[in-house]
Amino acid sequence: xxxxxxxxxxxxxxxxxxxxxxxxxxxxxxxxxxxxxxxxxxxxxxxxxxxxxxxxxxxxxxxxxxxxxxxxxxxxxxxxxxxxxxxxxxxxxxxxxxxxxxxxxxxxxxxxxxxxxxxxxxxxxxxxxxxxxxxxxxxxxxxxxxxxxxxxxxxxxxxxxxxxxxxxxxxxxxxxxxxxxxxxxxxxxxxxxxxxxxxxxxxxxxxxxxxxxxxxxxxxxxxxxxxxxxxxxxxxxxxxxxxxxxxxxxxxxxxxxxxxxxxxxxx
Length: 267
Hints:
The chain is of the alpha+beta class and 267 residues long. Helices cover 46% and strands 14% of the residues.
C-alpha cells in the first residue's frame, strides 16, 4: 500500500476530474476537513520555514527550540515599534503572534495550507516555471482516525498542547480566529507539529505505515510545461495576485503574471 498517493497531472481536464472524483464527494466545506497546499517545486517535502533553516545544523535537535525562542522574542520585542496595534496576549491567545510572524516572513514551525484547491493550485504553478510543481491534498480526518487507531487517543486539539506533547510525533491544524487580510483571501490555515525538525509528510505517512492504512495525503505533480496554461485558466476563475494579495504587492505580481501569460499565448 502506498502511504502517500502520487498522481501525475497531464492536463487541466485531468486535474478538474480528479477534484470532482476524489475531493468534491468527500469535502464538507463547513468543517474544513480537507486541506490543500501548493509548492512550486515538486521535489520539496512539506517542511515549515523554521525547519528548513535548521535541518542542516548538526545539532539541530538541541538548537531547534532555542532558535524558535529567539525568533519569537525578537518579534514580540520589536513589532510594536513598527505597528502599535500589534500587541499580543500570549497567555490567552498564544497563536496570533505565530500567525503574524508567518505572514511577515519570519521563520516559524507553521506550514501554510488553504481550504481552496484552486488557491493552492495557484501557488503550485505561479513560481519556478521551469520546475514541476506539486499540489498536496490532505484529508486530516484520516490522520486523526489513524492516530486514534494506533495510540487509542486523538491527537491534542489545542496548539499549546501540541507544543508540550512529547510522547510521539503529532500534527494539528490551526485556524486563526482573527485572520489578516491575506489569510482571509487565501482561505488560509496552518499545520503545526511538536517535532520542529521532521517534515509533516513524513509524520503523516509514518503513522499510516504503522496502521497499514492510507494516509489521506495525496501529491499531484504538475509538469512545468502546464504552469502558464494553468495560470491563465485560474485567472478566469479570479484566482489572481490581485485577489490573493492585498495592496501593491498584488498589483505588482499581477502585472508580472500578465506579461508571462501574454508571452505564453504567443509561443
